[in-house]
């Protein structure tokens, strides 16, 4: 699994829209960034995120939210129960 250097701007704008907290608490992260303890981590496993997500509940908790996005162009689910072999993921 390889991650983008930063999540897509459209994804970050979507996540930051209408939040009950400061939108600077939602932080774009890449594979070389350091994420502190007690942070919330959202991992998007596709290079294209088309759904709208409401993270108001997470934001209201007061912890920083780090967003990572995979660079994979998915044609099937990232965590599939179909097929043989093994999958390796590192975060």
Short description:
This protein is 13% helix and 14% strand. The chain is of the alpha/beta class and 91 residues long.
Would you write up a description of this structure?
The chain is 13% helix and 14% strand. The chain is α/β, with parallel strands linked by helices and 91 residues long. Strands 1-3-2 form a 3-stranded parallel beta sheet, with helices on one face. The longest helix has 8 residues, at 9-16. It is globular, with a radius of gyration of 14 Å. The N and C termini lie close together (9 Å). The relative contact order is 0.30.
List the defining traits of the structure above:
91 residues, alpha/beta, three-stranded parallel beta sheet, 2 helices, 3 strands, 13% helix, 14% strand
Rg, rounded, reads 14 Å
Biggest beta sheet summary: 3 strands, parallel
- The stretches of 5 or more residues where confidence is low (pLDDT under 50) are none
The total count of helices amounts to 2
In terms of DSSP E residues, the strand content is 5-15%
Silhouette:
globular
What letter string, H or E per element, gives the SSE order?
Answer: HEEHE
Percentage of helical residues?
A: 10-25%
Mean pLDDT across all amino acids? 82
Secondary-structure content class: alpha/beta
* Cα-to-Cα separation, first versus last residue: 9 Å
Number of strands: 3
Q: Please state how the strands of the largest beta sheet are arranged side by side.
A: 1-3-2
